[in-house]
Amino acid sequence: MNTQFKSGSSAEFDENWNLRKETKYNHWRRGAPRNQIQLAFRNHFEVFRRYLLRDGAKPGMCLEIGAGRGSISSFFADSGYRCTLLDASATVLDVARQIYARNGHEAEYVVGDANHLVFPDSSFDVVVSIGLLEHFENIEPPLREQLRVLRPGGRCFCYVVPGNPQNVQRYF
Fold first, then answer.
1. Of 133, 40, 30, whose CA–CA distance to 77 is shortest?
2. Beta bridge partners of 129
3. Which of 44, 48, 96, 129 could form a Cys-Cys staple with 65, CB 3.0–4.6 A?
4. pLDDT, tens only, 32-90
5. b or e along 74-111 (b: 16 or more beta carbons within 10 Å of the residue's beta carbon)?
6. Exposed, middle or buried: residue 57 (CB in 10 Å: 0-12, 13-18, 19+)?
């Protein structure tokens, strides 16, 4: 776990984010993946999709919390979901907006706090977060909020990115 950003400061995130070469890169792609991380995101979505299809879910409202560039929600958008991307950083949401426009996807973009979501109860059919919860000392508040905004019978998909200095993402 990266303790450098434990305070959750958007300013710290933006400073770090602007130094990264993959800032404007999205791991979604139509067609065959070109690298390991695209394959990983596609596989995450395929697992999520199988659960949704098994349960007879139809495309509806999807919220990605800690959306960053919107990689996982891009798969939902491409499958007919109406997506909302929430992130604490307006900077990264501007990048997501550019990526979505380039890929022909539509979404709503909300700057917000995962601990205190601005949405009414039971607003979304799917809530998804990948690489969010490992940044919190206490994951109960953001998880409670994710479940609060989930409609009855909806699905919440969370994936914690393991802390590994040799993580394949650095070689994307």
1. 30
2. 158
3. 129
4. 888 888 898 999 999 999 999 998 889 999 999 999 999 999 999 999 999 999 999 99
5. bbbbbeebbbbbbbbbebbbebbeebbeeeebebebbe
6. middle
